[in-house]
Write a structure and sequence with these properties.
Length: about 90
């Protein structure tokens, strides 16, 4: 998996991939450079890739969920206290 992180998907490589796999990408409605960049930008936003000096890099799976965990933790901290005492499972029965 570490080798995937070393791959640099820059504009030159993406353009070569577009040319080489044009028919396949066209069938999936990803046949131009702009569309592929939009998809990769989306992958950056959800944690599958990172953008580094104009080149995309794949991230390991753990990064995909880190932002979600941080968001959930922040939401939990910012929830208003309802004034009720926290009950344990034993107290509830």
């Amino acid at each position: 998996m570490a080798q995937f992180q070393q791959w640099r998907l820059d504009t030159v490589l993406i353009d070569k991939l577009c040319q080489h796999y044009h028919t396949l990408l066209e069938a999936e409605e990803m046949g131009n450079l702009q569309t592929l960049k939009e998809i990769m930008d989306s992958a950056v936003r959800v944690g599958f890739m990172m953008l580094d000096d104009g080149a995309y890099r794949l991230l390991p799976a753990v990064h995909r969920y880190l932002d979600l965990f941080q968001e959930l933790a922040q939401a939990r901290r910012s929830e208003p206290d309802d004034g009720l005492d926290d009950e344990t499972e034993e107290d509830a029965f």
